User: Fold this.
Amino acid sequence: MTDDGGASPQGGTNDGPTLREVANRCCKRIDVGAAVLPRPLFDADYDDACGRGEAKIAGATIEPASGDAAAECPLPDPSASGPNTTRYARTLSSEFNSVVIEHHLKWAPLCHSEPGPLEDLRPSERVGRYDFHHCDRMVDWALERGMRVKGHVLCWHVTTPSFVDKMSPGEVREQLRRHIFTTVGHFRGRIHMWDVVNESLAPDGSLADSVFLRKLGPSYIEDCFRWAHEADPGATLIYNDNKVEGMGGANAVKSDGFYRLLKDLKDRGVPVHGAGLQGHFSAGGTGRGRCPTPSMVRNQIRRLGQLGLKVNLSELDVRISKLPPDSDLRRSAQVAIYRDLVAAALAEPAFDGIWLWGFTDRHTWVRHFYYEDEPLILDGNYRRKPCYYGLREALGTLGPGGTVGGELGPFLESDRDADGTSWGSLWMQPEPEPEAGPKIEADSAGDSRPDWEQGRE
Ligand code: XIL
Assistant:
C-alpha cells in the first residue's frame, strides 16, 4: 500500500469520498462510527469557542461523587435546535454511519453526575432515578440521519455511581440488574448493540479487582449478559477491553486472558455475541503500551471469530506525542496504524466495525486523561489529516472488487512495509526481551485502575 498522506481542507471535491460513502460500497456491512459528546453536537458557539481555545474541550469528568461534571463541561441547553447546527454535527453525519455515546450513557452520568430534570435531587435521592434526556437527544439525532447507535457501557466499575460502594452485595446485584433492565429497556428498538461489560481484566489476564468482583464474585459478568439479553433479546451484546488487540507481543498475557474469558462465556452458553478491542494505540508506546502489528491484530480477530463472535475496534485513536516532534515519524506512524491495522482487521470475516473515540483533535478525551496529543483523523479545524486517507484506504480494500481476505486485503507478508522493512520498524519501540517476557509489574496483577492510570504510554 502506498502512503498517500497530505492534509487538505474538508469537503473539496478533489478530496474524494467520505468514509461513510466508502463504507457504503464495501462488500459487507461495516459500522464506521465515532464517539459523540452532546455539547459540541448541539452547541455551535461552544464548538467554535473550543476551536478558538476559548472553552474547555468536551470531555466530562468521571467523578460521580463530585457531581460537578456539569460545572466543568455544562451540557447544552435542550432548547438548542437546528438540523445540523454545528460543524461537529455536519461532519459526524457525513463521515460516519454509526455513533457511540462517549460518556453520558454510563451508569453514573445517567443516575448521578450529569444534570438534567433530576438535577435538583441529591445523589443519594437519585438511586434508581434515571435522566435520559441528553442520551435521548443524541440517539434520536443519529437515528434521524440513518445512523446506528452502539450503547456504551452497562457495567464499568470506573463510572459506577458512588452509592453502589455503600451497598450490600444483595443490593448491588439488585441495582445492577435494575440498571441494565432500565437502560436497555428504555432504548429497545433504537439501540441494537451494547457494550455490556467493560475492562474486567487486569494486565495479567485475571479478573481485575472491582466493586463488582468483590461484592458479586466472577459471575457478575455473565449475569450482566443474561440480564441484557432478557431486556432485549434482539440486541448484539459485546464484551469490551483494552490492550487485547493483538495475539502475542507485549500484551500476550492479557489478550490470552481476553480470549479465555470469552471462550468460557461461549462454552457456558452465555449470550455474548461480540468482542470489542478498544484500540487506544500509542505510536511511540513502550512495554505494554507498544502497538500491535497487523498480523497480531488479524490473528486475535481470527481466533475470536472461531468462537463464533463478531469483533470490532471499539475506541480507536492513535496517540503520537511519544514520537519526536520534529520528524515525519508522527505522521507516517499514525497513517500506518490507522491504515494497516484496520486493513488487517477488515480481512477477517468476523470483523464488523470500526469505532473511533472521537473524530477531530478539537474534542479528544486524550487531553483530559493523558497529555497534549493529536490522536484523531481530523485536525482541530476539521481538516482531513494524512491518517484520514490511510483509514479510507483501508476501508477501500473491501470496496468494489474487494472480498474479505481476498487479494485486495492487507499487504502483511509477516508484517513487512511496502519497502520491505519490518512493519513499524522506523517508529515502534523495541519489544521487551523475550526471556523477560511481557513485564507484568507485581502490583498490576489484579489492577483495576483504568488504562490511562496504569501506564501513560
Ligand atoms: C472516557 C470518555 O472519553 C471521557 O469523556 C469520560 O470522562 C471517561 O471515559 N475506555 C472506555 C471509555 O471504555 O468509556 C473511556 O471513555 C475511555 C477508556
In short: The longest helix spans residues 169-187.
